[in-house]
Amino acid sequence: MMTIIEIMKVLPHRYPMLLVDRIIEIEEGKRIVGLKNVTANEQFFQGHFPGAPVMPGVLIVEALAQCAAVLFLRGIPDRDEKLFLFGGIDKARFRKPVVPGDQLRLECEVLQKRGGTVKLHCTATVDGNVAAEADVLSVMVDRPK
């Protein structure tokens, strides 16, 4: 539904922090599903952990948050002037290590939306198995000039 080129038009993130490769489902204002292909040449694998590469949990949560940001930023005409920031992370659980060669399926569903804040339940799965999940609060702010 959205390629990496289209995602880059919506998100301000760039390598090495852009962690969403494709959007495969969008239900406007309700839910989104994206993909992150985890490859051995990711910068963080150099030190996390040598000889036993595992994707850091904080980066899995970041990938989920970026996916959620696409859901809302794509519909905002002045999105180049906005940023979505973390407002909170609740109930984060990491259930399965994510390693090179895995494909993360990033699913985010809106729980509550008020003004510039959105609370979502987000789940990252690999081959149908939950790798991580969290409730994420995102806050839209004006981008510093």
Principal-axes geometry comes out as globular
Q: How many β strands by DSSP?
A: 6
At the fold tier of CATH, the topology name is: Thiol Ester Dehydrase, Chain A
Rg on CA atoms, Å: 15 Å
Q: Tell me the fraction of residues in β-strands, as a range.
A: 35-45%
The end-to-end span amounts to 32 Å
Q: What's the number of helices? A: 2
Approximate helicity band: 10-25%
- Secondary-structure element order, N to C: HEEHEEEE
Low-confidence stretches are none
CATH class: Alpha Beta
Largest sheet: 6 strands, antiparallel
Q: CATH superfamily, called what? A: Hotdog Thioesterase
Kindly state the mean pLDDT as a whole number?
Answer: 96
When the domains are counted, the total is 1
Strand order of the largest sheet: 1-2-4-5-6-3
CATH A-level architecture: Roll
Structural class: alpha+beta
Give your account of this protein's structure:
It is built from 2 helices and 6 strands. It is an alpha+beta fold and about 140 residues long. It has one domain (about 5-140): Hotdog Thioesterase (Thiol Ester Dehydrase, Chain A). Strands 1-2-4-5-6-3 form a 6-stranded antiparallel beta sheet, covered by helices on one side. It is globular. The chain starts with a helix and ends with a strand. The mean pLDDT is about 95.
